[in-house]
Amino acid sequence: MVGFGMGSNEVMIKIESLTKSFGRIKALDDLNIEIKRGELLGIIGPNGAGKTTAIRMACCILKPDFGDIKIDGISIHEDPIRIKSMIGYLPEEPNLYERFKAKDLLKYFAELYGVPKNDINRRIDDLLELVGMTERKDDRINTFSKGLRQRISVARALVHDPEIIILDEPTMGLDPATANSIRDFVRNLKGNKTMILCTHYMAEADSLCDRVAILNKGKIIDVGTPDYLKSKIHGDVILKVRIQNLDVINNYKEQIMKFASVAAVDFVDGEYLISLKYRNEMSDIVDLFGNNVNSINTKEPTLEDVFINTVK
Amino acid sequence: MKFNLSVIMKFTSITKWEFKNTLKSKKFMMIFFLQLSVLFLMIIIFNSFVTNIESDNGISITPSLNGFASMDVLDQSGLISKSINPIINVVPLSYNSSLNNIAEGKTTGFLYVPGNVDQKIRLGQTIDMTVYLDSSDPKSSVVRDEVNSTAQIISQSYSNTLSASAVPQNTTTPTVNQESTGESLPLQIITKVMLVILLFLPLLLFGNMIIDTIVGEKERKTGEILIAMPMSQAQIIIGKSMAVVLTISLQVAMWLIILLIAGFHIDNPVLVFIFIFLTSIPIIGITSVVAAYSKNFKEAGIGLSIAYMGIVGFLIVPVLIYLSRKSFIANISPMTIVMRLFSGESISLVDYGISLATILIVSLISYWIAIKLFERDDIIFGPRPGILRLVYDLITFKKF
Predict the structure, then answer these.
(1) What pTM, to 2 d.p., does this model score?
(2) pLDDT in tens, A188-240
(3) Residues of A near B (CB-CB distance < 8 A)?
(4) Could you tell me which chain B residue has the CA closest to the CA of A95?
(5) Can you tell me the distance from the alpha carbon of B173 to that of B34, in angstroms, rounded to the nearest whole number?
(6) Are residues B79 and B193 in the same domain?
(7) B224 assigned to some structural domain
(8) Considering CB atoms only, which of A22, A84, A98 is closest to B228?
């Protein structure tokens, strides 16, 4: 069971041995993870890794073939209706009822979520203001751009003030400004709500999430804080040395590995990628190459590096 | 599932919003009024058809109806039995045997003509004939009409003869002729069947609504957020279906009012409305099954055509069976009950029960299948299993 990290110690979401197949394709294979109350867990993984399947099961949209998810101690097999009422789900595509006006759409979902009648209008006004859509509240959904649809989708997912928010690729295909406003929105909710964020954008996961789980072929490959994951793969910094004469590369790798600070060495497209655990020996390593150096760069490891390294 | 008020509220919320959006839709309103216009047109055409049939010129567009109904006759003079329209099969029989036949449902009616009829005609006296009818047989109205019509024709003919005999210069031989309009159609029955078909039409005209509302969720990919709502798939299917049932009820009510205003006689319109309303529930249930299984509108359209052929057959065939054989089992079709209500027949509780039981059973089965299909991940998100696979799962209680 993978489960350590931020937030309170109280487990809000517990995924146990979750398994799901679609025909002959195994989408999830014995998935286990715990998410603490108030934590924001990012899930990253290549296409078809099983991210959407996992969160659809947490939302009780899909049923597992085996295993269980417990939300605040309640099993999805026992009381799915109760669980659904605790979750605000934003699917990957902001598909909404085209003929509805923005205000009516939120009203419809508020009624379905069982928001008390007296609170509905006030709640809708607050949310429309929060997502900057007050002026467009009487416009039909089919007049909205993708960005506006995503904003109204966020409002829809929050209309019942859920304890848990599950976001599937919330910034996918949005212009940078809209994507940033959605990220700010998530950042503001952080700590107050338990959240799961599925994303392809590593920088997004890095900047927003308390912990990140890397999912591949239906299994969690690794999970931890972004810093932990980055340090685990590359160390503190990556030294990039592009060499001039490709014929003279014979024993550089062996010599570099002799330095205590070196965690790993790769040679890719005429460039040495040297992962360093600390920076003290950097100049000594560069000296090894003598005049055979074209360029020298350093780079902080990113989640993208982690992701590529983990799923390759 | 806990059955509490909030559960009902969510189910009615879907119905309320679907119904509201339907009425708001310009496309729907256009279809709605187009259908009303077609109804008006049908009434006009039907009225002119009936008028033509009843006219002297007459038209005959139906196949032979000879022997349509049978009637036992005790008529020693042969006064009536010789002249009656051939659509009535006349069987000469004794008084008691004929009454027994009626009681046993072997014949539709029995005509008794007194033995001294020749003498009474000569003396210019009134002839009292008696017709016994099995009123539970819908063909009895045809028999009654034909006997009345024949009696009137004969009476007119004898009156003319008597008048002529009072004028010496008139030397033409009086004969008994029947005014025939080709083969007389059993108009009352046609009227009733037509009315029933007209009133059942809306049940088949709004199938596209449930297709749009369920298949549309899959095509527009909005189903995912709807399933994520704190409600069961059963509530979603029933909530959406009830919105369509409401729309159908509205249309049927309007059609009934129009027919009544147009002068059609409908006995017990409230009961007629209730029966048609109840019939719409299993029909929408069956449509929901098609919608829940279909991947897209095209597939649903094909499925709907096939399903509705079956539904129409199930509704109309028992009506025809009832008209020809007065079969007890014909009451399984609510259309038969509605036609009998139009006739002002007394319908036993058992007959009502058969029809209501059919409605209930088909409703339960169809909604159960639709809900189970909608609950399956592979139906909503794929890969969708074939029908044989579903039948196998059903038989083996696997996943279903």
Answers:
(1) 0.76
(2) 988 889 999 999 888 899 999 999 999 999 999 999 998 888 877 656 788 88
(3) 22-23, 56, 59-63, 81-82, 84-85, 87, 89, 91, 93, 95-100, 108-109, 111-114, 156
(4) B222
(5) 59
(6) no
(7) yes
(8) A84
Q: Which residues of B touch A91 (CB under 8 A)?
A: 224-225, 228
pLDDT in tens, B270-291: 999 999 999 999 999 999 999 9
Q: How many structural domains compose chain B?
A: 2
To the nearest whole Å, the CA of A230 is away from the closest chain B CA by 35
Domain check: are B167 and B208 in the same one?
no
Asked if residue B9 and residue B84 are part of one domain, the reply reads no
B247 located within any domain: yes
What percentage of chain B exceeds 70 in pLDDT?
85
The third-level CATH classification (topology) of the domain covering A11-224 is: Rossmann fold (3.40.50)
Is B28 found in the same domain as B164? no
Instruction: Give the tens place of pLDDT for each residue, B294-351.
Output: 999 999 999 999 999 999 999 999 988 887 777 888 999 999 999 888 877 788 999 9
Instruction: Based on the fold, state whether residues B164 and B211 are members of the same structural domain.
Output: no
Decide if B41 is inside a domain.
yes
| CA neighbor of A164 nearest in space, from A188, A194, A189 | A194
Domain boundary among B174, B196, B216: B174
> What CATH class is the domain A235-302?
alpha beta
What pLDDT digit, counting tens, does each position of A24-63 carry? 888 999 999 999 999 999 999 988 899 999 999 999 999 9
Give residue limits of the domains in chain A. 11-224, 235-302
Distances, alpha carbon B186 to alpha carbons B67, B81, B83, B133, B280, in Å: 12, 19, 18, 16, 29
Residues A278 and A259: their CA atoms lie apart, in Å, by 11
Pick from A190, A290, A297: nearest CA to A241: A297
One domain, residues B21 and B84: no
What is the spatial distance between Cα B394 and Cα A62, in angstroms, rounded to a whole number?
20
User: Residue B10: which of A63, A82, A114 has the nearest Cβ?
Assistant: A114
> Chain B residues with CB inside 8 Å of A81's CB?
1, 230-232
Identity of the highest mean pLDDT range in B216-225, B246-255, B279-288: B279-288
Instruction: Evaluate whether residue B60 is within a structural domain.
Output: no
- Please indicate, yes or no, whether residues B305 and B267 belong to a single structural domain of this protein: yes
Q: Which CATH number do you get for residue B170?
A: 3.40.1710.10
Residues of B in contact with A59 (CB under 8 A): 228
Cβ pair B224:A95 closer than 8 A: yes
**Backbone dihedral region for residue B306 (phi beyond 0: left; psi -120 to 50: alpha; all else: beta):** alpha
Given the cut 0.95, state whether the ipTM is greater than it: no
C-alpha to C-alpha distance for B33 and B41, rounded to whole angstroms: 12
Q: What is the Cα–Cα distance from B146 to B142, expressed in whole angstroms?
A: 6
| Model confidence pLDDT, tens digit, residues A58-86 | 999 999 999 999 999 999 999 999 999 99
Give yes or no: residues B265 and B129 share one domain. no
CB B1 to CB A156 under 8 A?
Answer: no
Domain that holds residue B227: 5-50+188-395
Q: Which residues contact A38 (CB under 8 A, 6 or more apart)?
A: A7, A8, A12, A191, A192, A193, A194
